[in-house]
Amino acid sequence: MKTLATAAEAARHQREWFAGLRRRVAEGEPLAVVNADVPHEIFRAMDIPYVVSQWWASVVAAKQRSGHYLELLRRRGLPDHSEQYNAVTLGSAFDPDPDAGPWGGLPKPSIVVGDASGDVTRKIFDIWGREPGVAFYPLESAAENEVPANWWELVPHRWEEAIGPARLDLLTAELENLVRFLETTTGRRFRESRFREVMALVNEQEEWNRRTRDLIARARPAPVSVADGIPGVMLPQWHRGTEWARDAARRFHEEVRERVDTGQAACPGERARLMWIGRGLWYDMGFYQRFQEEHGAVFVWSMYLAIAADGYIRHGDDPMRALAARFAAFTDQLYTPPWSSEWYVKEARLHGIDGVVHLVSDDPRGGYFTARALESAGFPVIEIEADNVDTRTYDGDRVAERVGRWLEDVVLTRAAPAAGRGPR
């Protein structure tokens, strides 16, 4: 249940936007389906309607429809148990009654763009590209042996130093080629002046998110839980590069600030501050508030606001290279140790975390090292094995019982009194 007006407003805007997108596609405009790690700013600058594959999967999961789309994959002899976050959206392409899907269904795209961050993800988008009338553009996923210390301090301005010229050269060239591909495919023109406007709006939006992250980290008790924080930050993130998204991030900050100033708490009897590591549990968002009344434990952290604060801001005179710097190491920042593990430890200390709940799927992406780094830094960790959009992998009552016991036996016995407790 949303308590923030800005979270409710973002949800309303998302429904209106999607209805408008369906109308635009029905009238003949192109539609792109893109991965979350693809630079959406180019599509924004070219006014090409797009849907993020993982966002659509989250809607499907929230409507308890992921099993249906995974079954459609099975019927075609395709795996239904791997990289479900993207596979669910692919399954929607095979629905014989697409209009029966959530929110009227996902229209058929004419373009799909995905990053090759793993063999499975690449294959999913390859299958998209074999569909009649669908063109696929892949982006490579490069790696670097040198890992910068405290990358989050470097990337806003010193991103060349943090990421390395070779990775930036590769992705910049690929993005320039993507622009040419989109111009040829859609007939739309890319204007650098408009692109610069989009990049500036994104930086403004993420600066507001950074302030909100820091505000929540300092506040005792927590003014909001991630149940509000995730929609409050992520729905505008899917619209980044627009004035609406910039202003939504500002309003989100102002509402959180008001709650801090008036002493409002997500959990008035706060006894422990929790960190959620992993993708959103879209089919059970009530999970994040389940432990507040009985245990006084509130989830104050998720990666969504934190990565918006630390992972997106890029200043520089070359907008295309700055955009490449935003995404060249994005997967590293969230999933590849020591990039990711050091960042999670930093965030846990900043927020005064008492315990960490870690969602681990069949695609853990460095999950072992994340958990070990946090435990070595003194933070208790419990791992939940489930996929965040595949309800078949999740038993809510069993998970809640495990987490409840862990809170009582481990976290609450170690947690300091909430009053006056600051970051570690």
TrEMBL record:
InterPro entries: FldB/FldC_alpha/beta. Transmembrane segments: none annotated. It comes from the Bacteria. PANTHER family: 2-HYDROXYGLUTARYL-COA DEHYDRATASE, D-COMPONENT-RELATED (PTHR30548), DEHYDRATASE SUBUNIT MJ0007-RELATED (PTHR30548:SF1). GO terms for molecular function: hydro-lyase activity. Pfam families: HGD-D. Belongs to the FldB/FldC dehydratase alpha/beta subunit family. This is 2-hydroxyacyl-CoA dehydratase.
